[in-house]
Amino acid sequence: MESVYPVPAHYGDKAVFLDRDGVLNQEIGDYVYDPALFVIPPGVPGALRALKAAGYRLIVVTNQGGIDKGLFTRAQMDACHAKLEAAAPGLLDYIYYSPHHKIKTRSQLSKPNWLMLERGLHRYGCRPEHSFLVGDAARDLEAAAALGIRPILVPTLKETEHPLAAHVAADLAAAADWILQQA
Ligand SMILES: [Mg+2]
Question: pTM of the entire structure?
Fold first, then answer.
C-alpha cells in the first residue's frame, strides 16, 4: 500500500533523531529554558553538518514537561531553539517537543513513548531500520527501540550504559562518526 505521506524523490529515507538536553546542548542537571544556560558544545554544528551531508534527516525529539509544570513558557523554549538554529542554520529538519508532564497528563508524545519519533518517520518517509537516535537517557533509548530505530547512548549525568544501546559514544560528534561508519 502506498504511503499517504508523499515524499519528494530526492530526499533520503533515513533520519537521526536527536534528544536535546545532553546531546545538542549541555546537560546541567535541571530544566534548561534560559538561553544563557543553553550552551551548545563546539562539536555539535559540525556533527549535524556531516550527518546532513550524508542524507540524514535531523529531527529533534525533546520532552519539555517543565511547560506543563509552569516552570517556563513555550516562548522561553523557543528562544533556546532560536539559539540552536543560529548555531546550525538550516540543519535541523524539525523540532518535536512534548509540553506534557506525567504529573498532569499522560501523553503519547512524551518519551519513553514514541509518538514524536513516529511522527518524524511519517513526516519525512524515513525507515526506522535506516535511522538512529542519539540520547542520554533511558527513556530516549526506549522510545527508539520501540520503533526499531537504533539507539545510541551519549552518557551525561544520567545513564553511562544501557542494554538497549546499540552503541555508546562520548558525544554527538562521536555518535555521528559511528553512524557514518554503519552505512
Ligand atoms: Mg537528554
Answer: 0.93
